[in-house]
Amino acid sequence: MDALPLSEPGANLPAPTVHASLRGVTRIYPGSPPVHALGPIDLDLAKGEFFAVIGPSGCGKSTLLDVLAGLSAASDGQVTFEGKPVAGNVPEGVGVVFQEDASFPWLSVSDNVAFGLRRAGVDPAEIKRRVDYAVGFMGLRDFARAFPMQLSGGMRQRVCIARTLVMQPRLILLDEPFGALDQQTRLLMGDELLRLWRETQATVLLITHALDEAAMLSDRVGAMSARPGRFVDLVETGWPRDRDSTLVAEAGFGALTARLWSHLRAESIKAIGGGRA
Amino acid sequence: MNYGRKVLLARFALIVGAIALLELLCRTGVINPLTLLAPSAMAAAMVQVIASGQVTSDIIRTFSTVAIAFAASVVVGIAAGALLHAIPRLRRAMDPLLASYYAMPFFVFYPVLVAFFGLNAMPLIAIGFAAAMVAMLISTLNGLDRVPPVMLKVARMHRLGRLRTLFLVVVPAAAPSLMTGTKLALAYAFISIIAGEFILSGKGLGYQIAYAYNSFDNRTMYGLMLFVLLVVTVMNSLLHVWEQRLLRRRSRA
Amino acid sequence: MSATVAAPARVRRTTRRNFDQLLIVLVLLACWQGAYEYAGSVAVTSPAGTVAYAASMLGQMWFWGDVGATAIAFAYSLLIASVLGVALGLALGLWRFAADVTEPVLAALYTIPKVTLYPVILLLFGLGLSAKVAFGVIHGVIPITLFTLSAVKGLPPVLLRTARAMRLSPVQTILWVLTPAVLPEIFTGLRVGFSLTLLGVLIGEMFASQRGLGFLIINGINLHNVPLTTAVVLVIVLAAIGANVALLAADRHLRRQR
User: For residue C213, how many other CB atoms are within 10 A of its CB?
Assistant: First the structure.
């Protein structure tokens, strides 16, 4: 695996070192009355780890991602990335893939992917090499000149992933990136995500509402409570690094999702305003 | 033959058919030629009037007035739209005014403006500007409202500054609305300025049509009328084609 | 508990908004007064003078005669433009091919300066009520058609499929599914059509009539009667804005229901 354009030289560090951490992080939206959306949260992400977050809808999963990415500031507590505090700005080396379709409809697929590199003033030959690789990696080679509106939802999300990973992020944050896709496509996209993670050796935090997705993809799953979101359980999956969606047939898989659901069920009932169910 | 072709062909047939029907009705005397000139006679009159050069100064006058009003309204409309978008409190306060703006029959201000500026091009520029600018402003607001928040997040992820976010993300994302605003602004500037010339001015194409009408010069009147309609239609079509070209890839192929 | 906390904040917001809007009205009045100070009474009358003149005008019979003339022409125009526009819009909207053929033509007709057609209208209808009405109709009918058409075209196909699944007849479908579904958009079209039809009628009155508010304006101009012109302009603008505010409120109410 030498000279892959998606990985930084010298990224093969021995695990585990703390790559990003949250200490006592809360997020309270001001207003009358103020809304306590998140926390307090304590979490360490090990370098190269694949961490998944599940939780009932509205529990503050996306808020957690925004705070970790520096897209919004924590009301209280400390966020650090590679030892430096994160506050209100996205640090270099962090890439985000959003739930909504964020492809730029006015740019072709390859121009979308090249967007960040051009802004960073990377040498054109280098841009071409990295864009070609990322476009090929995400299976978009035949559509490089197409425009997003000519593609399916799944393809557009691949464009967004390629646009993020071409920047060689060391920490990749994904906010329900496959939320709008059908089940089969999700499983296949999950395989690609695992491939990407292995190849780039990046740290990945994936937010999802799908139990099986969390259980299949990650090294560790954090289950969150209803709002204000806190971690009620952290589960080590114990899967080998070299894995794919055939895991769903493993004996331990059912037990794992059952454990996650046991937490999530009660919290989801709270989140939908139940208590009767 | 595919659907798009069929539509184009049918539209062409519709327009040609309407003109041919009118021609037929006039030629057979069903419509009194004193009331309405046959389309062929109208076209001939138009060529003759334009070629004679007697209205050249009016053409220049009208087009330059429209051009000034249009350019000013696009610039000011975009700037004012951005300002209102940036200051929600001002926008909320202005909202009823904007919502009712086009319910106002503007041309009723002509007399006031003529008394104010005198009988020169200024009152017409002002009226054209007033009619066009708010359309541009409202379109700008719509466009800025429709920039998906996630795209601004992408801009922050790429750590773009304010200016680069504006030109690389916000403007392209708002482009369809800005385009609509531009088209409306041109049409509204034209409509109000021609109407103003018609009612009050002593110069311009609108005035020449009114003058020909009052002196029972039907040939000149219909020739000029056809000229104005053709010019406006061609201009709007050009803008439409330009818009389609810019936005083509952004709609489903 | 949250309601008791939120209520004063909402009241404060509304108060501030009313204050801001009042401020804008005051700024507009100040501009008017400034224009009067600058140009003098040959151009405009002062806000106070205009209001006083308008108030005395409202007490006179001749004024109401002109208002009546405009109102009758406007009522006919609006009725014809609405019926014609909605019917045409529904028919074209349901026949997809016809809609695709005619929509750009209608949009082009919307953008032409219709005032140039005024001699033709006069030659066809002669001076008087019918010319005014025709003028109002040609201004108002196209936007009403276009709004109705795009509402029907934009109808989610699943609604029509639901109607078929429920085995509704075409008439039942139009009555109980199509019409309620497109009603808010049609109302918006009628609101826009309302303003434009009024505009058309007033322009028509400026040349094609010896009665009506449009005639009063052009008469005021010709006789250099600045107080009359300014007062009539004020009355028209206030009436147009007032009607639009009421229609807008009804429009928003219709849309909020869904």
Answer: 26
CB-nearest to B157 from A96, A105, A150 is A96
Q: Domain tally for chain B?
A: 1
pLDDT (tens, 9 = 90+) of chain C, 258 residues, equals 444 445 666 777 778 878 888 888 899 889 888 888 887 777 778 888 888 888 888 888 888 988 999 999 999 999 999 999 998 998 888 888 888 888 888 888 888 888 878 878 888 888 888 888 998 999 999 999 999 998 888 887 778 777 777 778 888 888 778 888 888 888 888 988 998 899 889 888 887 778 888 888 888 878 888 888 888 888 888 888 888 888 888 888 887 765
Cβ proximity of C154 and C98 under 8 Å: no
Long-range contacts of A189-197 (CB under 8 A, 24+ apart): A189/A154, A189/A157, A189/A158, A190/A216, A190/A217, A190/A245, A191/A244, A191/A245, A192/A138, A192/A139, A192/A158, A193/A161, A193/A217, A194/A50, A194/A243, A194/A244, A196/A6, A196/A137, A196/A161, A196/A165, A197/A50, A197/A172
> String of b and e for B135-172 (b: at least 16 CB within 10 Å)?
bbbbbbbbbbeebeebbbbbbbbbbbeeeebeebbbbb
Helix (H, G, I), strand (E, B) or coil at A232: strand
Residue B169 inside a domain? The answer is: yes
| pLDDT value of position B39 | 87
Tell me the nearest-neighbour CA distance from A33 into chain C, angstroms. 6
The interaxial angle of helices A124-137 and A153-165, nearest 10 deg, is 140
Q: Of B150, B249, B253, which is closest to A98 when you measure between CB atoms?
A: B150
Q: What is the pTM of this model?
A: 0.80
Label each residue of chain B as H, E or C: CCHHHHHHHHHHHHHHHHHHHHHHHHHCCCCCCCCCCCHHHHHHHHHHHHHHCCCHHHHHHHHHHHHHHHHHHHHHHHHHHHHHHHCHHHHHHHHHHHHHHCCCCHHHHHHHHHHHHCCCCHHHHHHHHHHHHHHHHHHHHHHHHCCCHHHHHHHHHCCCCHHHHHHHHHHHHHHHHHHHHHHHHHHHHHHHHHHHHHHCCCCCHHHHHHHHHHCCCHHHHHHHHHHHHHHHHHHHHHHHHHHHHHHHHHCCC
Q: Which residues contact C42 (CB under 8 A, 6 or more apart)?
A: B115, C224, C226
CB contact under 8 A, B175 and A106: yes
* C-alpha–C-alpha distance, residues C205 and C218, integer Å: 9
Domain C61-257: top CATH class: mainly alpha
Q: How many of the other CB atoms lie within 10 Å of CB of A228?
A: 19
**List of chain B residues whose C-beta atoms are within 8 Å of the C-beta of residue C123:** 34-36
Mean pLDDT within A22-45: 84
Q: Which domain holds residue B237?
A: 55-252
In a domain, B136, yes or no: yes
List C residues 103-122 in contact with B (Cβ-Cβ < 8 A): 104-105, 108, 110-120, 122
Task: Specify if B88 maps to a domain.
Answer: yes
Alpha carbon distance B213, C130 (integer Å): 19
Instruction: For residue A118, give the H/E element and its range.
Output: helix A109-119
Residue with the bigger pLDDT between B171 and B96: it is: B171
What ipTM was assigned to the predicted interfaces of this complex? 0.79
Any chain B CB within 8 A of the CB of A115? yes
B224 occurs within a structural domain: yes
In this structure, what DSSP letter does residue A20 have?
E
- Tell me the CATH number at B99: 1.10.3720.10
Distance from CA of C6 to the nearest CA of A (A): 6
